[in-house]
Amino acid sequence: MRSEKEMFDLIMNTAIHDDHIRAVYMNGSRTNPNAPKDILRDYDIVYAVDETKPYYEDESWLSVFGDILYMQRPDAIDASVGMECDFDKSYCWLMIFNDGNRIDLHVQTIEECLKDIADDTLCKVLLDKDGIFPDIKESSDAGYYVKKPDEAEYEAVCSEFWWCLNNVAKGLYRYEIPYAQDMLNMYVRPQLIKVLSWKAGLLNEWKISVGKSGKYLYKWLDEDEWERLLMTYSGGIAGEMWQAVDIMCDLFEKAAMFVADKLGYEYDQKDASGAKLYAGYIKALQKDEKTAMEDIK
Question: pLDDT of 119-169, one tens digit each?
Fold first, then answer.
C-alpha cells in the first residue's frame, strides 16, 4: 500500500500542475482529530475547478492516481434513476486502487466549494492558488456533536421506538425474518442509538460526536452498556432476535428515563409498558397459539 506521503504527493502535484484546479481541500476522517487513525482511512478530496465538464467527460486523467481496482460514480447513478443532479456544479468518483488505498474525489465549482467550507467544520484547505477561501478554524468534529433534543423530538423518538416494536413482533410471529430485521434495524434501532447518544451527550456537556450509526459510542458508554448494545445485533434466528428485542427495550428505557430526568421531560411510561406487554404477548403466542392476552398481564 502506498504511504500517506505518496498519496498526498499525487493529490497535490495533480492540482499544482493543472491550471483549471484552483484550490484543494480535504474533509472526513483524515481531518477529524478524534477519528481512529488507521490505514483504511479514505482520502476525501475536493478540487475546486473553473469547470467540471472536462473532468467527467474524459476520465483518463484519473489514471494518475494509480490502477483502479473498482469505483463508483454516485452522481451518475443518481441521475440514471431520475434524481436531480447538476454535474456542472459537482461530480464525484469513489475509487479503490489495487494497493488498497481509497480516494473519494469531488470536482466542484468554486461557488459550491465555498458552501461546503462554510457548512463543514471538518474541512481543511490544502491549496488555494487565488486566495478564494476565507480563513477557517482548525478542522474539528464540533459540527457533528450530539445535539440536545427539545421535548418534542424526545417524545417523537420514544414514540417511534415503542410503536415500531409491534411490527418487529408481528414479523417474528409470522417468521417473516427479513421484514422483522428491517423493522428492527431501520426503525427501532435508530431510536435506541439516539437516546444512547443523548445520554452520552448529557454526560459530556454536549461536546462529543458518536459518529455515523453511533460507531464511537464505545467511548462514552460504560462497558456493560456497550457489550449489551453489541448483543442486539442478532442473526436471522427468531429466538436470537427476541433476545435482541428484550435487550434493546431495557437499554432504551433506562437511557430514555435518564435523559428525561436530566432535561426535565416526561417519559411516557404508559406507552412503554403497553408496547412491552404487547410484544411479550406476541412472543408467548408464537410458542402457544392458545395463549390469551389476559394470561400475560
Answer: 788 888 999 999 988 887 777 777 789 999 999 999 999 999 999 999 999
The structure's pTM equals: 0.78
Amino acid at 23: A
Beta carbons within 10 angstroms of residue 201's beta carbon: 21
Among 158, 161, 175, 167, smallest CA distance to 263 is for: 158
Q: What SS3 class is residue 20?
A: coil
Question: What Cα–Cα distance (Å) separates residue 139 from each residue in 12, 117, 147, 213?
Answer: 19, 10, 19, 21
The CATH number of domain 146-296 is 3.40.1190.10: no
Q: What is the pLDDT of residues 241-280, one digit of tens each?
A: 999 999 999 999 999 999 999 999 999 999 999 999 999 9
CATH topology for 4-143 is: Beta Polymerase; domain 2 (3.30.460)
Show me where the domains of the chain are located: 4-143, 146-296
